[in-house]
Amino acid sequence: MTAFRKFALRKTVAGFFRDATISERISLRKMRGTFYLVFATLPFIFSCASSPSPAPKSEEKLPAVAVQVSPSKNRSFFSSIDKETMRLVEIGSPQSLRQAAASIHKSSPDDYSDAEKSILYISAEIMKLAWPSEAVTWSVPPIARTNQYIGAVESAKKGIYDLSMNRSDFLSIMLPSLVLLTSSGVTIEDYYELSENSLNFALELCPDSVLANYLMGILCLKQNENEKALEYFKLSNGKYAGGTKEILESVAKACFLTGKYELALSFGEELLSRFPQDTELLKTCALSAFHLGDFDKTEGFVVRVLLLEPDNTSYVLLRAKILMENQDYIRASSLLDAVEKKNSASKEYYLLRTQLLRDWSKNNAAAIETAGTALNLYPYDSETLLVAAETASVAGLSVNGMTALELAEKVLEKDSENVQAMEILLDEYIKKSDYAKAYSLSSRLMQIPSVQKTSLFRHIDICLALKKNTEAMNLALKDYEKNPADENSCMAYVKVLSASGQKNSAMQLISSLLSSASQKMKSFLYFERSQIQGTEDSVLADLRASLTANPRNKDSLYSLYKIYYAKKDWRRAQYYLKQVVALDPSNSLYLSKNSELEKLLGR
């Protein structure tokens, strides 16, 4: 900020408020009467009370409220206008602005005073800038002479924060901040601090101002203070707001940015019932539904966006992403091809193409290459690093010379609580049988509520690998007692019973579950029973039953490999091992064992 601006700021009332400490600000808010007396020598005429009356109906007027202000020798430019009318303008909602305009309506333009003309002009411009969805329902008479209030509005329309205002009342303090609604390219240093100070003081004068709270919310959004923005938008959405579209839309946006996706979707859908063609609302609803995992609803919103904006590549890609989530890879591939033909390749395109090659085409080499391209273009982007790490983990290869573990660690350097990076890292530790590190990381994941349930079963497996059977039993039993019908809970409890030597209890539980189990569950139960059977014939019978229920059960296939390997029946051993390798082609242990069998078979 220039020296001139700092000097100008100190000379303003807003500058005084900025220099106050937090405790001083609290004192000021508790003692408004004393606060106003400090400025008695300034030409303030305040008309907005701290405890407003109920919301006015369209034909109802807001009652005037007395404010403690010492008499001033200087009169405000608007002193001739009724205080009740000024209070309506200061509230600044569409409803109150209409009431203010109606209260000073004259039959002839010549009958208006300069102050009344200015108020009608200011109210109309506020409506156009802040509430464009609302109509200006009054005529603005010609203004022969400009003044500082009109000048501030005109400056704001040009993207300029007016520093020349003589801040003598609510409007002179608040109006320069209308620039927040018109300017997007100006740097923070130019006016954000000035605006924040002025709006803080304006809200001291009129805490119920819909407009001032709304502008403060916009300012917070511009500074990425999304939680604060949401609070201000909630304040602006009080009894005077009257369901104003721009306010509800901003509440929805702030809810989305703060991760409150259900609220964002709720506000968005409410507004869409009134404004069904609003693409920004459709986009907010689409993204909120996507984060909530409601892909059917997401696709409905995305289709509506694309009907209005058919060339919107971002939403073509979002639709492809939804199709991939639903495993509709053929249609997703077609959409990605269409984007590629338009030369519209972006970060999202490369990431989706990588996932398609990896998960559907099973072309790990091409997936690694595409992930590498994305990483070259966006080397510091966390989402790109995560997709590259996941691809490296699945393929068992490096991306641009970095392993899955190294890529995940890069993400954690920037965000130590990134759950996806932690889970990739955990998978790598388990692959390397580094269960000590896996246990430490898994314990951290168990403390995160959003992933506690999914982390539980993996943590139990890690405990069993480390012979921490007591901890595994405590966790598995507690979860089983809470969710006795949940397959994952049953599977974990069976594993722990078997591993801790409670074979009879394990056999009884398996027998009770088999009759009503799904095919996947049956396959698991037969495998677990095979591990505690007494004879080889019983073991083989259970393993074959397991594969009948699920031919892709890797544990059962690997157990049969080990049985035939021990019998030196290399051909049968390889028959089962090759199926294991097909299910987990990047596992170095399985690959080395298969190479060994190749040698034993003389190939």
Helix count, DSSP H or I runs of 4 or more residues? 33
Helix content class? 55-70%
- SS-derived structural category: mainly alpha
Q: Choose one word for the global shape.
A: elongated
Using only C-alpha atoms, the radius of gyration works out to 34 Å
Q: Give a quick account of the main beta sheet: strands, pairing sense, barrel closure.
A: none
Span between termini: 77 Å
Tell me, rounded to a whole number, the average pLDDT. 86
Low-confidence stretches: 1-74
How much strand content do the residues show?
under 5%
Strand tally: 0
Organism: Treponema succinifaciens (strain ATCC 33096 / DSM 2489 / 6091)
Protein name: Lipoprotein
Keywords: Lipoprotein, Repeat, TPR repeat
TPR repeats: 554-587
TL;DR?
By secondary structure, the protein is mainly α.
What would you say this structure looks like, in words?
It is a single chain. With 603 residues, this protein is mainly α. Among the domains are: 1-223, no CATH class; 552-603, no CATH class. Helices cover 66% and strands 0% of the residues. It is elongated and about 110 Å long.
Topology of this protein?
Blueprint (H helix, E strand, L loop, with lengths): L2 H8 L2 H7 L2 H9 L1 H7 L44 H9 L2 H10 L10 H17 L17 H10 L12 H5 L13 H18 L4 H13 L3 H11 L8 H13 L3 H12 L6 H13 L3 H14 L4 H13 L3 H13 L5 H13 L4 H14 L4 H14 L8 H11 L4 H13 L3 H11 L6 H14 L3 H14 L4 H13 L3 H12 L4 H12 L5 H14 L4 H13 L3 H14 L4 H13 L3
Key terms for this structure?
0% strand; mainly alpha; 66% helix; disordered N terminus; 603 residues; 33 helices
